[in-house]
Amino acid sequence: MDNHDLLRPALAGFxxxxxxxxxxxxxxxxxxxxxAVPAVASSAPVPQPPxxxxxxxxxxxxxxxxxSEAPLRALHINHGLHPDADRWEAHxxxxxxxxxxxxxxxxxxxxxxxxxxxxxxxxxxxxxxLLGPGDLLLLGHHQDDQAETLLMRLLQGRDVRPMPRxxxxxxxxVILRPLLNTPRRKIRHAAEAIGATWIEDPSNSARRFxxxxxxxxxxxxxxxxxxxxxxxxxxxxxAKAAHDALLAHLLxxxxxxxxxxxxxxxxxxxxxxxxxxxxxxxxDRALAEFAAQINARADAQPELRLVHGSLRRWRGAVRYATxxxxxxxxxxxxxxxxxxxxxxxLSIKPAKDGGFHAKGAVQVRFxxxxxxxRMGGRSRSLKTLLQAAAVPPWERGVQPLxxxxxxxLAVPGVAVADxxxxxxxxxxxxxxxxxxxxxxxx
Length: 442
Fold this sequence. Notes:
Layout: H1 8-11, E1 18-22, H2 27-39, H3 65-68, E2 72-78, H4 85-99, E3 103-107, H5 115-130, E4 135-138, H6 143-155, E5 166-168, E6 174-176, H7 184-193, H8 210-225, H9 229-250, E7 255-256, H10 266-275, H11 284-291, E8 303-305, E9 309-314, E10 317-322, E11 330-333, E12 337-341, E13 344-350, E14 356-357, E15 362-365, E16 372-375, E17 378-381, H12 382-388, H13 393-396, E18 401-404, E19 407-411, E20 415-416, E21 425-432
Parallel strand pairs: 1-2, 1-4, 2-3, 4-6
Antiparallel strand pairs: 5-6, 7-10, 8-9, 9-10, 11-15, 12-13, 13-21, 14-21, 15-18, 16-17, 18-19, 19-20
Helix pairs in contact: 2-7, 6-8, 6-9, 9-10, 10-11
């Protein structure tokens, strides 16, 4: 395969509108940017390294035309933590100017506490604010980073899971690490072969940071005795990821009957099940404490808050409650039509039988208290209808309600008002989004 196509196999299957390289100016992201430029068909070729493998076998697939024609830009996050931070940003801008690549920078505020973790949180907040559906963000993580991550998580007593090759941000953008199977030494060789210049952040040598301590003190000593130590760690991480994926597949339900499992399986089952909702950061202790409450008294409502939602107990099983902030008090919808909400999608289409009657636009609102619906010749309280339909308490306040004027016409999936004679008649379908996330909780 031509050197200009080194990145294309890693992009195969990703249909995106725009490619963005997270460009710190360091060696890894510099090489990645040099690979990304010719991966975009409209870009002019630049000098390429000889011998840098793609992260998936070549010749097995081709990148979609949507990716190969997507515009490319570089994104630099300025953390402001070093006196030379602005100079580094200027260096990145100059590199992009030479390559003819649009350059975007964002200065972020890093909070106190663990500096590594705080900088990462600030960086990912910026990614999520600047990117959205249709964006593919390329990160320069490589095999050595993966080995460091796995060993650090093991020593910290956390879930030993590898960095995923790709994942979706809450805002809809997709992150891809195309060099994740490539050793650092090959990236360095590539950088030298193309004559690239890059930034050496002095903090990368500071042993007080956990990752740097492992990188400079521990892993070299392990490799001196076990030459394949890094590859072995990465292989162990892959095996763990495959195990978790299989377990998540077996637990692919909207609820988890945790009480039917032996207690020693509660934490791994919860962890694997939560992965289907994009929740991967819960600690073992927190999960164990929640599981211990599964048999609490009937009127108790145990809850474990997570990154994008929370764990709840409902009718003897575990349920995942999504975050659903950002809701307006009312939305207008002209039937037939579809309304996309932060926590799901509401569709209204013509009904052949039954349904509800409405002329013109309707309003979609949410429970305020005291709502009633005329059904079966009598007025029924919304509270009673939701309880009878077994809608969990935390979902009742964000259940879409269809009104026309002050009259409640339908509670999608629960009940519809009595029909007057004649058309038009409509049916409503509500599809919750189990991975919805926003700034506040239900």
